[in-house]
UniProtKB/TrEMBL annotation:
The record marks R17 as: Transition state stabilizer. The lineage of its organism: Bacteria, Pseudomonadati, Bacteroidota, Cytophagia, Cytophagales. Substrate binds at N71, H77, D84, I98, S99, R108. The keyword Translocase does not apply. SUPFAM superfamilies: Type II 3-dehydroquinate dehydratase (SSF52304). This is 3-dehydroquinate dehydratase. The keyword Cell inner membrane does not apply.
Length: 140
């Protein structure tokens, strides 16, 4: 089973930025742990700070992969284009947010992509990625 994790803007700074919100571990380090936990999955990771690159990646993998774990970062709340890209593909998408977006600034409470995703996991730190992978790997 082939699953890709796609992270959006500023998530390349995990472990460096706002440690009280996002923790002190880089995503690359955490990704290695995920690969060790989910040995039955073929996992890939992609990150971009550029909206169009995220859309291109969704288009590229959205018809051939078994699942996508997607954290759109700030684009979650602003990008109709990413929402449309998710709607256009066949591969199921699990939306993940490290922080609880509903406990933060009001503008973060709205996700434009949730309606196009299988579900949203928010507020469980990096463990949200584990939850999403578990869901996608057991989905028939």
């Amino acid at each position: 089973m082939k699953i890709i994790i796609i992270n959006g803007p500023n998530l390349n700074l995990l472990g460096i930025r706002e440690k009280t919100v996002y923790g002190n571990e880089s995503f690359e380090t955490y990704f290695e742990k995920l690969k060790g936990k989910f040995t039955n999955l073929e996992l890939e990771y992609y990150q971009s700070n550029v909206e169009g690159e995220l859309i291109n990646k969704l288009h590229k993998v959205g018809f051939s992969y078994d699942g996508i774990v997607f954290n759109g970062g700030g684009y979650t709340h602003t990008s109709v284009a990413i929402s449309d890209a998710i709607a256009a593909i066949n591969t199921p998408v699990a939306e993940v947010h490290i922080s609880n977006i509903h406990a933060r600034e009001e503008f973060r409470h709205l996700s434009l992509i949730t309606k196009e995703c299988a579900g949203m996991i928010t507020g469980f730190g990096l463990m949200g990625y584990d939850m999403a992978l578990y869901y996608l790997s057991t989905k028939s």
